[in-house]
Design brief:
alpha/beta; two-stranded antiparallel sheet; globular
């Protein structure tokens, strides 16, 4: 694979789906967006403040980041005025690149949402071949959004993904999805069921994280409210640009508060 380190000539190539994004100048609130375009984001407490990522990730030990999971890759999130446009995984890569001054980044997310069994068979071999040291695993997205999916086997499949990554030396962060029950397009009579379903997915992912010494990032409350609704696109259950900024902040803050972070040592562990 022709991997391009994050920050090299200002580019990161997402090899898994042949999409490229500019990752230069990650220090700004828009993480690469034009100066002055992310004013609201800079003041949003759910998003990273200017310079926050650099301070949180100072001394971070990771140099090879891989992203995989059941989330569909986002070509262009619905824009929200005042927020940068970059998707959350590219934002995290850019933040790490700024702190470490050069990382390799492989994005294996597919074109559409899938089951974790598909992630294990289709993405995990490439992730292991990459020989990374940090893996972000998106988990439970398909199980939360599609009511025809049964939750049986979710834990087992997640273990079959996390355990090989841990055995290969990766620090792993399991990344959940924003509260689906808050999506404005979801009919009111389905919100309670969506909230309960997502709670069960989160509980299973959190249990796997505890068992395998990883982090689980829960992006927000399960119940719909104004703040939770504001992260969703209006026409589909995908985060808008504000949602991507908030999710990136949640992941970076989780990485930055790991034990030993101030010394740049030690694996990712649950708080």
């Amino acid at each position: 694979m022709d991997l391009i380190p994050a920050g090299q000539q200002g580019r990161v190539r997402r090899e898994g789906n042949a999409i490229e994004n500019d990752t230069a100048h990650a220090a700004g609130t828009g993480h690469g967006d034009a100066p002055g375009t992310a004013v609201e984001e800079a003041a949003d407490p759910h998003c990273l403040r200017p310079g926050e990522a650099r301070a949180l990730l100072a001394g971070a030990p990771w140099r090879r980041l891989v992203v995989l999971g059941d989330l569909a890759v986002e070509r262009a999130a619905e824009p929200v005025e005042g927020y940068g446009t970059r998707p959350w995984y590219d934002r995290v890569a850019a933040a790490l690149d700024e702190a470490a001054e050069g990382i390799a980044y492989l994005n294996l997310l597919g074109r559409r949402t899938g089951r974790l069994a598909q992630v294990r068979s289709g993405q995990l071999p490439a992730a292991l071949a990459f020989r990374g040291d940090l893996a972000l695993v998106c988990c439970g997205t398909a199980y939360t959004q599609d009511e025809t999916f049964g939750l049986y086997g979710l834990t087992a499949e997640l273990v079959r993904i996390v355990a090989p990554l841990r055995d290969a030396g990766h620090d792993v962060v399991l990344v959940g999805s924003p509260p689906l029950a808050a999506w404005p397009g979801l009919p009111a009579d389905r919100r309670e069921r969506a909230a309960e379903r997502q709670r069960r997915v989160s509980d299973q992912a959190r249990a796997v994280a505890l068992r395998h010494g990883t982090l689980y990032v829960d992006p927000g409350p399960r119940r719909p409210d104004a703040a939770a609704a504001a992260v969703w696109s209006r026409d589909r259950p995908r985060p808008n640009s504000r949602g991507h900024a908030a999710l990136a902040a949640a992941v970076v803050r989780a990485l930055g508060t790991r034990p030993g972070a101030e010394a740049g040592r030690g694996p990712v562990r649950p708080p």
